Amino acid sequence: MNPSQTPIAKTSILIALLVVFGSAGNIFFSVGMKRIGALESWTPAALRSAFVAVFANLWIWLGIGSMLLFLASLMLVLSWADFSYVQPATASMYVVVPLLGHFVLGESVAGPRWVGVGLISLGVALVGSTPPNTTKKD
């Protein structure tokens, strides 16, 4: 199969994986950092202690792993789909993350943020209605 004729389904699956890996990574980082707590001071000892706490935290490593999978998926999908399609389509993460924050982490999401989530959803739907690849291949 010619790369310029890559099925839309393959692109859609990779975009969905991007959203899942990116959203999961952000949630894992949030959980990990909330468990570690705020940095109390900027002294070398406090920074060293925070560095050790961050890299000893399982949630942070899950976030790093998710973000590495996100990066691998992004590089793969960009090998055949236009950046101008992929980047706006991955904005679905900005919809998924507040939903996860609210329903999984119990965070309060204000009304204006929900309006923003709705607008982002409309934008993603608009981008999704366009072809993933408009670049002519030689």
Overview features:
mainly alpha; 138 residues
How would you describe this protein?
The chain has one domain (about 5-130). The chain is mainly alpha-helical. It contains 6 helices and no strands. It is globular and about 55 Å long. The protein has helices at about 10-35, 45-55, 60-80, 85-90, 95-105, 110-130. The mean pLDDT is about 90.
The helical percent reads over 70%
Q: What's the gyration radius in Å?
A: 18 Å
Q: Structural class, please? A: mainly alpha
Poorly predicted runs of 5 or more residues: none
Helix segment tally: 6
User: What is the overall pLDDT average?
Assistant: 88
Which series of helices and strands comes N to C? HHHHHH
Largest β-sheet summary: none
Through-space gap between termini: 15 Å
Give the beta-strand count: 0
How does the overall form come out from the CA principal axes?
A: globular
The percentage of residues in β strands lies in: under 5%
What is the number of independent domains? 1
Summarize the structure.
The chain has 138 residues and is an all-alpha fold.
SSE order and pairing:
Blueprint lengths: L7 H29 L7 H12 L2 H21 L4 H7 L3 H11 L7 H18 L10
Helix pairs in contact: 1-3, 1-5
